[in-house]
């Protein structure tokens, strides 16, 4: 019984790391597509699609955090981190739609840095 719970917790933890890595990658790709926005005619389309993918990755991070917490009975802290990222992603989308680059760009940089830190923290566990 205990080995089954441990195995499920390990799978949940792996899923959590994958979700954070995916989120980090999508945020990085958003920075790349922001550069394309300035230089290519198709940049706006790529950045818009990337925003949807990044938002979905943030929702996946919340799901992975809940699934990693529930079977193992560990700390709910990753759920708070994931929920915070989802809030930041929501603000980021609103700012992008409203064309407020003076806040949108620094928030994107902050999100990337926080996502890298979350990935490093999840990899240590």
Describe the protein:
This protein is mainly alpha-helical and 125 residues long. It is 90% helix and 0% strand. It contains four helices and no strands. Helix 1 runs antiparallel to helix 2. The radius of gyration is 16 Å and the shape is elongated. It starts with a helix and ends with a helix.
Keywords:
mainly alpha, 125 residues, 4 helices
Main sheet record: none
Distance between the termini: 22 Å
Shape field: elongated
User: In sequence order, what are the helices and strands, one letter per element?
Assistant: HHHH
CA gyration radius, whole angstroms: 16 Å
Number of helical runs? 4
Secondary-structure-derived class: mainly alpha
Return residue spans where pLDDT drops below 50 for at least 5 consecutive residues. none
Average of pLDDT:
90
Lay out the secondary structure:
Blueprint lengths: L1 H38 L3 H30 L4 H21 L3 H24 L1
Helix pairs in contact: 1-2, 1-4, 2-3, 3-4
